[in-house]
Amino acid sequence: MSINNKLKFNIFSTLKIYENVKLYNLKKVKKAWYAGAFKNNDTLINEFIFKKRGEIFSISDSKIIQNHKFKNISNHESIIWGGFIIPHYGHFLLESLTRFYAFNHSEETIVFFAKSLDIPSWVREIFEILNISNRVNIIAIDSIINVKNLKIAKAGYELETTKYYQKFFKSLKIYDKINIKFLNKKVWFSRSKLKKRFIINEDTLEKQLQSHGWTIIHPELLPVKEQVSVFTSANRIAGFIGSAFHSIILTKTISVKLDLFLLSEKTNINYINIAKARNIQQNIHDIGLRSISGNEFNKSTWKISSSRIEKILTILKIKN
Fold first, then answer.
1. How many angstroms separate the Cα of 231 from the Cα of each of 221, 244, 276?
2. At what angle do helices 202-211 and 306-315 cross, to 10 degrees?
3. Where are the domains of the chain?
4. Do 99 and 81 form a contact (C-beta atoms < 8 A)?
5. How many whole angstroms separate alpha carbon 6 and alpha carbon 15?
6. Fewer C-beta within 10 Å: the chain N or C terminus?
């Protein structure tokens, strides 16, 4: 029986299926993404809505979108909606992959919207780890997709809220290879080679850590598999809080202990959610470090004093 433009469920009751859908990827601006997925009568598909911090991030006004003359139009028989590619490591893992738990419930192409096709290499590395590289189709802005059958799941994680599915984290438990280079090591995640959001004098701290047997790494310079292997191999990892710690969600099993040092008085709830969902031994420490260059996210800089270096060494039991 045909049920054009009506909702139906597959046997897994995870993916909803909508018939005869138009997906629009119009443009990305600083605080919003103009995109939408509409069924008959310009009705927005609720599962498509992109939320951040409890607020809607995607602007899905059918009049704005449908009055635009799109450059790229394609037709598809059946696809799975993947999500929006956010070219920020931590946001990609938690937001772009928010529906990963549903991808193996069907075998269709997985469509992601992106600002452009020029995406960071680590995005494709992660797709490879998750074994979905050959199924992913990335659609840049200024595009329309006409789909006979759209399969879509609810978001498994909503950034900086307590809204998440345990099955989202369970589905990402992929990587279990040991890296002898980090086996049973104590590892410090350094920000000292970052071009922005770095910490002045962190190299001074690192020299003291190295003298006590710690290994210093710069996660952003390593392939993703090697970043994840640190969590499968080391027995203790510490560093100033940052997205590199989110790689832990890709590990099958976790026995490493984490010590995260805050860069503000507020603890980002994403780290608490991950620790709770994956049962991680994690301590978060506030040593009073605050930005010296304003509150704008991408331009913040910190400077660590000798007294705060001493605090870190004491917490890590390097000094009494």
1. 16, 11, 16
2. 40
3. 8-171, 180-315
4. yes
5. 14
6. N
Residue 238: which of 200, 197, 196, 185 has the closest Cα?
185
Tokens of 101: 């738990």
Fold of 180-315: Rossmann fold (3.40.50)
Burial class (CB in 10 A: 0-12, 13-18, 19+), 81: buried
Digitized pLDDT (tens) for each residue of the chain, 320 residues in all: 222 333 333 334 578 999 999 999 998 887 789 898 998 767 889 899 888 877 778 877 777 777 888 999 999 999 999 999 999 999 999 999 999 999 988 889 999 999 999 999 999 999 999 999 999 999 999 999 999 999 999 999 999 899 899 999 999 999 999 999 999 999 999 999 998 889 999 999 999 999 999 999 999 999 999 999 999 999 999 999 999 999 999 999 999 999 999 998 889 999 999 999 999 999 999 999 998 886 655 668 999 999 999 999 999 988 66
